[in-house]
Every structure is written in structure tokens, then in C-alpha cells.
Amino acid sequence: MPDPKLSVVTTLYNSSPYVDEFFERVAKVASEITDSYEVIFVNDGSPDDALKRAVALHRRDPRVCVVDLSRNFGHHQAIMVGLGYARGERVFLIDVD
Q1: pLDDT tens-digit map of 9-40
Q2: 96 and 22 Cβ atoms separated by less than 8 Å
Q3: Which of 20, 26, 66 lies closest to 43, judged by CA?
């Protein structure tokens, strides 16, 4: 699979209520720009079920990448990890909430 044109990177911490709607909205807008995109969720040690929701999205859509950090490192470190996983020609950083 070739590298995507667009990578959307976000972090998860107490984000469970937002994960599904966030992905729906991002996928809709990204697909208007290009068919070649990925969405990277970085779980920053979230204590809720945000990770479970993101993994469920990954199982339904291979454009979803989930990175699970071993504990909470903080938003900026989690974003940096997401940037390390991003393969797109362009990267968009956004908060999930």
C-alpha cells in the first residue's frame, strides 16, 4: 500500500465520548480532499474506553492506525509519537474533542 497523501493525528485521553463522531467527521472531510488518507489515534494512557473504541474503528477501516502508549506521557509527547507514525505527504494535527 503506498503512503497516504494525508495523515490526521490526534491523541486520546478521556476521549471516549468523542472518538466515533470525530472519526466520522474526519473521514467525511478527508475523503472530500483525497481517497488516500490515514487517521492516527495515539492513546495517551486514557483511563476510559477510548482505546477500545479506536481499536474497533481500526478493525472496520484499515485507514485507522492506533498507537497505545504504556502510560500517560502528556499531550505534546503523544502528538510527537503520532507524528512519528504519520506517513502522509501532509499531516494535520487536531484534538479529538
Answers
A1: 999 999 999 999 999 999 999 999 999 999 99
A2: yes
A3: 66
φ, ψ (nearest 5 deg) of residue 65: -115, 135
Is the pTM of the predicted complex or chain greater than 0.85? yes
Cell of 96: 479529538
Furthest C-alpha separation in the chain: 35
Distance of CA 11 to the CA centre of its chain: 7
Determine how many CB atoms are found less than 10 A away from the CB of residue 3: 11
State whether the Cα torsion 65-87-6-42 is positive or negative: positive
